[in-house]
Design brief:
Elements: H1 2-6, H2 17-20, H3 25-46, H4 51-78, H5 92-99, H6 117-136, H7 141-159, H8 171-192, H9 199-220, H10 229-241, H11 246-251, H12 254-287, E1 293-298, E2 301-306, H13 310-349
Antiparallel strand pairs: 1-2
Length: 352
Amino acid sequence: MVALLHFEAFSHLKDLPFFNDAYLFVDFFFVLSGFVIAANYRQRLANGFGIGKFMLMRFGRLYPLYFVVLLALFLIESFQGADAFTRTDRSVTSLFANLFLLQSFGTFQALSWNAPGWSIATEFWTCLLFATACSFWPKRIAIIAIAAAAFPLGLIAMFSKFGMNVTYDYGMLRCIAGFSIGVLTFAIWQQISVFRFDERLAFVLEVACVLCVVLFVSIAKQDHISIVAPLLFAVVVLIFAAEGGPISKLLRLSPFLFLGALSYSIYIVHLLIETVLVDFIKFISTNYDLPLVSKFQRENEVVDMLGLTQSQGDLWVIVLLGLVIAVSAMTYHFIEVPSRRWFRSLAQTERP
């Protein structure tokens, strides 16, 4: 959904609010991440697993592919001649901030380089806060998580002009809130997982969840109601964690498991693939007088969109998505998996 949101194609998707406001699925990512990390590491950290060991494994999970894509964007920018590194989102200062995962602490006025990377940076530091809390105050995690969810959401509600759509400015608060709600969701799941719904009830609940998400994302836009998103996604995670309905069974089919395995790569590489393809198409359109690109006014800038008609734009979306999945399959097998294994083995040699 986030990849589709960022594709600059003149497609029918641009007419649908559900796709135009897909930025909210980043909050689903934060909630789900908090749930999964708590399920796998909360008790282990409380038992002395070690903050350093945990963070080394998180670094190995998140950073290698993040770095490779950042390096690719740096090389592309280096070939821009006199204009290289002159744009605000491609400055040398912002490059170093991205390199050290510091781009979402309100020090910049725009997203920079690989824009989706802001959420990876904030999750890394949020994981450090989580590991510290679990290691030093294991019996107070629930209270800490409630405070860590409520306080950031309150600040966003008071100061954000765009609802939950905060990134370079209050992105860290957004991540802490969603992640903490995910931790709380796992604590609730531990208490209710002994109950099992029959398949008919599970079907009703799963369908209701999907419909609620579609409706909410379609109407939330960037208004203050969007701040409810992490709470809605927490309910979705709880319902689907039971895996009791037909939608859950559908999502366990191999094509969806394949996309699930590639999900991190898809999220990290999609903007790079789009940038390269759009620049290439613009080059062909300009130099060979082929009408392939439409121009649209967006706020204070003119934006190039692939396709002269919406049907052409739909085809470009399919091409972009296919390329992203193909490249993601390669980055998953050749970067993600090897680096994850290497850092995991390295962590095993470290003392807790």
